[in-house]
Amino acid sequence: MDTTEYNTEELLQSRKAKKFNLWLGMIGMFMMFAALSSGFIVYTASGVDKGIKTILPVAFTYSTVVLLVSSLTLHFAYQAVKAEKFAKQRLFLLLTMVLGLVFFAIQLHAWHVFAGRGIYFVNNNASQSFIYVFTGLHLAHIIAGLIVLVRCYLGALKPIPFPDNQFRMNLAIIFWHFLDLLWIYIYVFLLLNQ
Amino acid sequence: MSSTVISHGAAHHDAHDHHHETFLTKYIFSQDHKMIAKQFLITGIVMAVFAMVLSILFRIQLAWPEKDFPILEVFLGKWAEGGRMKPEFFLSLVTIHGTMMVFFVLTAGLSGTFSNLLIPYQLGARDMASPLMNMLSYWFFFVACVVMVASFFVESGPAAAGWTIYPPLSAVPTSIPGSGLGMTLWLVSMTLFIASQVLGGVNYVSTVLNMRTKGMDLWKMPLTIWAFFLTAIVGLLSFPVLVSAVVLLFFDRSVGTSFYLSDLVVQGQILPNEGGSPILFQHLFWFLGHPEVYIVVMPALGLTSEVISTNSRKPIFGYHAMVYSLVGITVLSFIVWGHHMFVTGMNPFLGGVFMITTLIIAVPSAVKAFNYIATLWRGNIRFTPAMMFAIGMVSFFVSGGLTGLYLGNAALDINLHDTYFVVAHFHLVMGSASIFGMLCGVYHWYPKMFGRMMDTKLGYFHFWLTFIGAYLVFFPMHFMGIDGVPRRYYAFTAFPFMEKWVSVNMLITWAAIIAGLAQVAFLWNFFSSIWRGKKATQNPWNANTLEWTTPVEHIHGNWPGEIPTVHRWPYDYSKPGHDTDFIPQDVPFSETMSSNLPHDFEGNEEAVRIQNEWNRANNREIIEG
């Protein structure tokens, strides 16, 4: 990390600020989805022929479970690093990444299910296009989350100094839980509108 | 925070006290806030010159719509065949001028420069919360600029749907040449730009909240910092919304979705898109777009507050009122976007609501204007170039703000919308005012940035020509607007009712050309002073804020030893009883016994007792505890 010149107090202050940065960034990301939600509501209210007009595929339930479990495994990884059990940390990190990829695959499968029902992205009922936008943008964030996890894993493998490792994990776990909650928000929002 | 552990002991640091600095890490991929500020400023200035040249090009067209200028063909090629500009290119010029000025110059160039420079300096921090994010913020911005300029080199020309890029014009690539590849590049550029702003904004907010030095509580912060802080919050909440709007627009353009498109026939072809709503885009766009104008003007307000107080040698009038009015503007900025859409078929009741919220903004704005004037009142004014620009800023803010009352009125807006009245309004209140705020900042903090002074005489020359020029350009536009002349029209000679305004257009264009040439004085002054300016002293303006306690030579970490502790607010100018007319923020009250006042101690009884003892011993009036 780029903190070589600072004394202990300033380092602590700078870490606190970095963590705060993450929270602010998440507010920004949430604003993006809030804008899409309001866009969806305004659009869907514009006519009776608008709206999702289908039942969400069961795949979304599976993906929700997978993402929840991945949050749990990441939590275990974080517990492990706090207890300085680094082998366990790497194992759970790996598990989380695999679950993240599984989530990714299930979401793509859900798109496939939609396409099978004749609900395409290019659609004159844009409420249905919105489903793809919501899930797609969330997946883009999942990719970012996976990159964060890979970075944690590489750090644990190297290994970087213990406090840096722990700080990295701390940021990663906040972000990953956020992605989890974001997905639940999207899922509930879509469920309420189906 | 219990989970965070310190990795490096203090002893560990002394071992590698020095950074390995190469040319690349010092000047190009710098993570130092001072260097990043300069990078933002110089990129902003380059963009400003570029955007200004564009405006002069379209002003030439407006003044002499029937005349050929063969020289234009030399530079513009097929866009000005026979020396006369094509209508499509005229629209591109207007669009890119607006985009560059609003986003690249007055958002990134202004906030990016001065937030980066002053937030760590004035708060007493070694650097930003995340120097890496700060560097990325600049480089995203830089690439955004490059992409935008590159759109001039594509076959079909740059985007031409106006800086607001309303669909369907922007969403149908076949509609006009400018909606083709140029529009795609516009969207790419803007996405990069938003990434830059979010990275930067996150950093500014976090630094202000977490990295203040000892004693610097929020109510001791200079108004500049308050302004940057609130600006960053506005940006953080509004820019992501534009991302959503842009993403949907991108899908409509490139994939064939129908978020914004419906029932269109373009060049004889019926488009397949059904059911979309262009109004949806306007809502999403203006939810960013209106806060954006405050992102542009608030930093300028902050900079002028500081400069006016310092150069009036008086405390800023109504410090708390200044802060609360900024907060008020911040909150209100999110609930007024509908006033851009009064004539889109909006429900009149909703229009009424937006009208009321809009007109309420006049209150905090007026508070600020009056406080500036009250600060100047009977001050010991030093008319430095920075001060001239600060006063000019207040002038534009008032004269442009007044027309906001007309435009904010839903009934009057039926007549005035999309006319030159709107152009006049926003060019004065946010364009000229913010540019003047920015120039005021450049003149004032130049010694801090480059360690040298700018030439004062050239500064005055630059000020007067620009000030008079700007009024000559924008003031006549009010009358054109009231007469119903629409904005963005290519040739006034094509419409009999507009023909009489061509002569006014000539006046405006000449004024614009002269004001444009005046900027050469600034550019010369700015760039030559970097090497040849008079060497600056540590505190050339006798100012109170912390940045003037740092050495003139830039060092990594800003202060060579410990960061100074803050004891007082930043506006102790001409305090009665003190031997100089300024007391920097890091001077403790124990060193200024002859000028301390009861409220300085904020109810600290021990301090009051000591002060009273001193007063008795020195025949000074005893203060109440």
TrEMBL record, chain A:
InterPro entries: Cyt_c/ubiquinol_Oxase_su3, Cyt_c_oxidase-like_su3, Cyt_c_oxidase_su3-like_sf, Cyt_c_oxidase_su3_a-hlx. Residues 1-194 form the Heme-copper oxidase subunit III family profile domain. PROSITE patterns: COX3. The chain crosses the membrane at residues 20-43, 55-78, 90-110, 130-150, 171-192. It is a multi-pass membrane protein. It is found in: Cell membrane. Keywords: Cell membrane, Membrane, Transmembrane, Transmembrane helix. It holds the Pfam family COX3. PANTHER family: CYTOCHROME BO(3) UBIQUINOL OXIDASE SUBUNIT 3 (PTHR11403:SF2), CYTOCHROME C OXIDASE SUBUNIT III (PTHR11403). Belongs to the cytochrome c oxidase subunit 3 family. This is Cytochrome oxidase subunit III. The lineage of its organism: Bacteria, Pseudomonadati, Bacteroidota, Sphingobacteriia, Sphingobacteriales. The gene is ctaE.
